[in-house]
Write a structure and sequence with these properties.
The structure is a single chain. This protein is mainly alpha-helical. Helix content is 46%, strand content 0%. The longest helix is centred in the middle third of the chain and has 20 residues. The N terminus is likely disordered.
């Protein structure tokens, strides 16, 4: 016989829904967020929902990688999240500002390899993002995790 214990859960304040996760949007202005979502929709066959998902995971990845600087974890996104990362880093003025604020002024360099590495680094990266307190959009990470991860291993680069 199973017994269920009932623990009352307080209701959130009217109109507020608390999230236990860090919000990657808080790292940039709303104007920049909207611009980068629009860039993703312009350059890829994404609707606003998909562009928002990809960009959110890109920022969660970049902020996690920056916070892990010097640890040589070899963090890397899969192809889908990498599209969002490229959108962020190609906006060089905004990216330089992000690096100033979250990476001690040092760029998180982009050092792609020609060959893909199927070493589990994509899912290890998703785990590291979760440990940092960001929500992981698992389908975006699992979609190409088995054959992806073309970034320089064991370095502080993307």
């Amino acid at each position: 016989m199973a017994i269920a214990l009932e623990t009352p859960v307080p209701a959130p304040a009217a109109g507020l829904e608390a999230s236990p996760f860090k919000d990657p949007r808080s790292s940039i202005t709303a104007e920049l967020w909207n611009k980068q979502v629009a860039l993703l929709m312009r350059d890829y066959p994404y609707d606003e929902v998909m562009a928002t998902r990809v960009l959110g995971q890109a920022y969660a990845y970049l902020l996690t990688a920056m916070a892990s600087r010097g640890k040589a974890l070899g963090l890397t996104p899969g192809h889908i999240v990498d599209i969002g990362v490229h959108t962020v880093i190609l906006d060089t003025v905004a990216y330089a500002d992000l690096c100033d604020r979250y990476n001690g002024g040092a760029f998180l360099h982009h050092v792609p390899l020609a060959d893909m590495k199927a070493d589990g680094s994509v899912m290890r990266t998703a785990h590291a993002i979760a440990v940092m307190g960001f929500e992981v959009d698992l389908p975006l990470w699992q979609a190409d995790a088995a054959e992806c991860g073309p970034c320089h291993p064991g370095s502080d680069s993307h």
